[in-house]
Write a structure and sequence with these properties.
This protein is an alpha+beta fold. The chain is built from five helices and five strands; from the N terminus they run H-H-E-E-E-E-H-E-H-H. The longest helix has 13 residues.
Length: 118
């Protein structure tokens, strides 16, 4: 009877976790759109959520809303809370990054972080 030790596997898992610890911290929180409304009548909430939670699942904070069905589309985001979460390392999704750029929130955050470049 041969006994196998699982310590090599555990060492690999532990090393992998420690190597990516810094990367995990940066990617843990996302700012993204959450679908609300009925079928074919969608609107979205702008939420701060754990990156592992599902699209319409649990979220940390609701910071605004987006309604693409109005003309022009309605975008309302709490600028102070968005800047706070971005400064804490939250990563916006691609569609939300475009919205934040159009509203000027990312520019203000960059100017706040580097006052000498203004």
């Amino acid at each position: 009877m041969q006994v196998h030790s699982d310590t090599r596997m555990l060492d690999r898992i532990t090393v992998w976790n420690f190597e990516n610890e810094e990367e995990k911290k940066k990617r843990m929180v996302k700012i993204r759109l959450r679908q609300v409304g009925s079928k074919k009548q969608l609107s979205y909430r702008v939420v701060v959520a754990d990156a592992r939670s599902p699209r319409d699942g649990r979220f940390i904070e609701n910071i605004g809303h987006y309604n693409p069905r109005t003309d022009p589309p309605t975008v309302q985001i709490d600028e102070e809370r968005a800047r706070y979460w971005l400064s804490q390392g939250a990563q916006p999704t691609d569609p939300l990054r475009l919205m934040l750029e159009r509203l000027g929130i990312l520019d203000k955050l960059a100017a706040y972080a580097n006052p000498s470049n203004s």
